[in-house]
Amino acid sequence: MNETVKARTMETNEKTLIRTLKGETLSVPPIWLMRQAGRYLPEYRETRKQAGNFLELCYTPELAIEVTLQPIRRYDLDASIMFCDILVIPDALGQDVAFREGEGPVLEPIQNVQGLSVLNPDGVLDHLAPVFETIKGLRRELPADKTLIGFAGSPWTVAIYMVEGRGGTDGGKARSWAYKEPDTFSQLMDVLVAATTEYLIMQVDSGAEVLQLFDSWSGVLSEDQFRKWSIDPTRRIVDGVRAVHPDVPIIGFPRGGGLMAAEFIRETGVNGISMDANVPLEWARDTLQPLATLQGNLDNQLLVAGGAEMDMTVRRIVDTLGKGPFIFNLGHGIVPNTPPEHVARVVELVRGQS
Amino acid sequence: MNETVKARTMETNEKTLIRTLKGETLSVPPIWLMRQAGRYLPEYRETRKQAGNFLELCYTPELAIEVTLQPIRRYDLDASIMFCDILVIPDALGQDVAFREGEGPVLEPIQNVQGLSVLNPDGVLDHLAPVFETIKGLRRELPADKTLIGFAGSPWTVAIYMVEGRGGTDGGKARSWAYKEPDTFSQLMDVLVAATTEYLIMQVDSGAEVLQLFDSWSGVLSEDQFRKWSIDPTRRIVDGVRAVHPDVPIIGFPRGGGLMAAEFIRETGVNGISMDANVPLEWARDTLQPLATLQGNLDNQLLVAGGAEMDMTVRRIVDTLGKGPFIFNLGHGIVPNTPPEHVARVVELVRGQS
């Protein structure tokens, strides 16, 4: 860190992640990792046993705080993302959501306008009260230099789970509904935009300092539909949150959005853009970095593999993107069979300590 | 069609699809649709009953020819793609491949170098002899103005099925293997490159006039790995086929490859590039069309929905891309619940007959 930047840090007293998201280029980029609290850590697996099911883990502040803090104890990360899941929104709306071991989430699918009647937007914030307790507890317990990130799923991605009943599909049923009956599909999206906006506002009220919106399945959308169901709902949420919290930095993650990323940034007004591993670095540097802070994009399977190729790739990502506003991260969440020591190695490399 | 082009057609006697793939801009773009022979047609479902399982349908020339011809009888399409499946290659190599109704293909996964011992490359062409019979029969039965397209899966996509045991994943096991042991993963890829090259050469020997390589899961690859496992094996196959058949036009389909498409075209030397629905039209026109003939990219769910939005989108695709070398197609294969009359409507629209 050079003297000018150091001086400014002391002056502003702002945390690295927030400074980067406000457009500052740091000599050492901040680092956090999607799903940094998770099954790859033995202490997570221990804590996990104390909750009956996965949603109970999300809704028990004591346990959610504990697993959120676990990676912070192990690694010199710049930020902590509250432990939760994007499917708490459909759960809070009254849809039946179950997490089955080794199978991922399964929802009772909603496939038409009649199905929307099961959704009750009124009780969402009450239902999610434990999440806000988790955030408050984390702000008390997190070291002062760590940024607390709140998050939600983007409406399109949450809608895919709600309509298909699961992830990992090509979103055919959701895309079909959106084309055949855009008006009734909009009703579902409006419910999600409203619920997600109030959820994120309350996260900031409770102490979240940065927000990330995960649009994990935006890559299945055609150009037009991406504008309609990924960009537009994101813009409405960003506007809604900023109406109450004008300064909170927001990161968008239109996974698989490829070429639409530049338009996504311009139209939604997000401060940062998270990139999956297939986004080419030089294109991102030249095209996206002038528009927003970049975040990404180490392949999560390269983190599993480790070794010289991982070292080289981490260095290349930092060398290529680190000359502008940049946050080191993965292209997608950490997978369960990741060796914990590989995470330590990546943190060292990004810090320039090896 | 203007007089010059018409004169040239009569002179060269070449079919529209081949002319377009050689770089000619036609006033009416040729059209064919991925999976145009399939479950959305009642006559396909009837013929399907005559085969015990799906692979038997692929390996019975009489039935494969019949289902290939069915869409040609119904619609004024420019090309016919032989009815087959990309998984005949692992099947021919000796891996256990099963197609279960409503579940998609299931393979006995190969997850390390030891697993490669089940593969026997020697018998591939003998095993695939029925496919070549299908092609020969189709050349006899197809109307003279229809182009016959042969195809194969790209090695990366076929490897994903072979390693994961199924599709629809993030390719984590294949990506992991490729990172941890690139040398042994290369052995699998080399087997696939060799088998696919000889398979495609024999398809052309048998009468295929154009080839398409489907890399349906290339979108899960990081930038580096895309170069290594999508571009490089494709280039080797293109070179191998061209060493024997220098003039056969080849279409690549790096689905989800996004920004890597331009490099894919330049490095592999394909004549055409098939684009999924999320590729933005104006970018494709400006960036890719100077390099190759474009093919695509109507959303297969918009073909299901039909109506004014489908009409408008078809017209916009043709208006935007039709001023250069272009083949109208979908972004991905036709899905089973597609109303057959919507296909007729799209053909009319592309032909400018409505």
Q: Please trace the helix and strand order of chain A, writing H or E for each element.
A: HHHHHEHEEHHEHHHEHEHEHEHHEH
How many strand units of chain A? 9
Which structural category fits the helices and strands of chain A? alpha/beta
Overall average residue pLDDT of chain A: 95
| Assembly of the depicted chains | homodimer
Instruction: Give the uncertain stretches of chain A in residue-range form.
Output: 1-11
Largest interface: A-B, 42 and 41 residues
CATH topology of chain A: TIM Barrel
Tally of distinct domains of chain A: 1
User: Describe the biggest sheet of chain A?
Assistant: 7 strands, parallel
Shape of chain A: globular
Helix content of chain A: 40-55%
**DSSP strand content of chain A:** 5-15%
DSSP summary: helix tally of chain A: 17
Question: For the largest beta sheet of chain A, what order do the strands appear in spatially?
Answer: 1-4-5-6-7-8-9
Amino-to-carboxy terminus distance of chain A:
16 Å
CATH architecture of chain A: Alpha-Beta Barrel
Query: What CATH first level of chain A would be assigned?
Result: Alpha Beta
Rounded to the nearest angstrom, the radius of gyration of chain A is 19 Å
Question: Could you explain how this protein is built, in words?
Answer:
The structure is a homodimer of 354-residue chains. The model of chain A is unreliable at 1-11 (pLDDT under 50). Chain A is α/β, with parallel strands linked by helices. Chain A is 51% helix and 12% strand. Chain A has one domain: TIM Barrel. Chains A and B meet through helix 10, helix 12, helix 15 and helix 16 of A and helix 10, helix 12, helix 15 and helix 16 of B.
